[in-house]
Write a structure and sequence with these properties.
two-stranded parallel ribbon, about 80 residues, about 40% helix, mainly alpha
Length: about 80
C-alpha cells in the first residue's frame, strides 16, 4: 500500500465558480494525479499554482509534504 499527498490549487468546479482567480480544469488535475501515482510521487502538486507552493514547501521543510505530516504522528499500519 502507498500513500500519496495530493495538494491541489484552485480547480474550476462549482465550489470555486465565484473566485476570480486562475483555475485548473478538473480533467487536467485528475490526469496529473493519476500520472503522479503512476510514477510513484509521494507528493502530487497537480496544477501550476500548487507546483509553485510545493516548491516553496520543499525549500522550507527540506522534505515532502506527506513526510512532514507523517513525522508528526506515530503512524502504524492498519491490520485488515
Amino acid at each position: 500500500m502507498t500513500v500519496h499527498a495530493v495538494l491541489a490549487g484552485p480547480v474550476d468546479t462549482e465550489m470555486s465558480r465565484d473566485l476570480d482567480i486562475p483555475k485548473a480544469s478538473p480533467e487536467s488535475v485528475a490526469r496529473a494525479i493519476f500520472d503522479g501515482v503512476e510514477i510513484g510521487d509521494e507528493d502530487i502538486f497537480p496544477d501550476p499554482m500548487a507546483q509553485v507552493h510545493g516548491a516553496e514547501l520543499a525549500q522550507r521543510c527540506g522534505q515532502g509534504a506527506r513526510a512532514s505530516v507523517a513525522a508528526l504522528v506515530d503512524a502504524q499500519p492498519v491490520k485488515p
